[in-house]
User: Fold this.
Amino acid sequence: MEPTPDAQPDPSSLGIPGAANDKYHALFQAMDQGFCLLEMEFDAAGEQVVDFRFLEVNATFVRQSGLPADAPGKSVRALLPDLDPFWFDTYGRVARTGETVRLEHHVPQVGRWFDVHAFRVGLPEARQVAVLFSDTTERRQAEEQSYRAAEAETLRLQLADALGPLTDPATVQEAVTRLARQHFGADRCYYCEIEGGQAIIRRDAAAEGLPSVAGTYPLADFALLQVVIAAGRPFCVRDVRQDEAVDENLRQFCVQLEVISYLNVPVIKNGQPAGVLCLAQRTPRDWTAAETVLAAEVAGRTWAAVERARAEQERAASEAKYRSLFDSIDEGFCTVEMLFDGSGRATDYRFLEANPAFSSPVSGS
Assistant:
């Protein structure tokens, strides 16, 4: 049953003196939910809350909110100057209408999620709101991790399905970059093959309106990319316009292509750089640790799929070459499979392969 304004009486307002008052105060402090009593400050029109002041808090409030124990008497603007306007609107509506509100919301200023129950106390003109809340950060983080794990597994399955039948390195890169861009919600994704001091981008996936970056680029022109490759570990830039690690040449190149933020993941094989997977954004972005780990996995899968496709192409080319030689020789040639009876005596044979000369009529026969 949800609490109501009458469910949390102030002992002193009921005339409960002495030891009884101390008893209720002890219970108030022992609650496993955070509690605070707020006084709203409205604008001149009495419609919008411009600030609110803490009147009373319990010990759990201090532990879960991250705010100081001496919060009573202080305004939220003084303690959290950049607090989300959502809270002013929500508590203001409770104070004006008497509506009870139950919700779960994130407070980035303290980095936590809270399950909140807010209700008006006292007369409307007192403009007081009581708030009961619980920290749900751990549960939300567990849910988020579970969701990310499921999404990552979906990407793995999509890559396996898409790459399985592909035998061309360019089409492999096209499939990978399309799926990775979609999964990470990036504006652009591409894979560089590192060969002979050059970064070769055969295919890329980009949001509508963005130019392709496919092409061949000398690594010598981009000092930071060389550092990333040499380090052999992922490297991210939140904003190329402000990051001092980005050299001016690369900065201008990125801005020209609308690459403001990026995550680069090098692939190192046998101690040598083999490729780089890049995710890019037109706006500043904070790349998470989970995104970096998954991007590294995608980069490794891309390299493996490209190598497999390249080996398949080489095998097919070699087969075609020898097939051409086989067909062009002027002597008849065939391979047969011998057929034996139950006692092991050869009784027949089956043609498996023959060149054109084998089937051609012999002159003068």
Summary: The two ends are 106 Å apart (CA to CA).
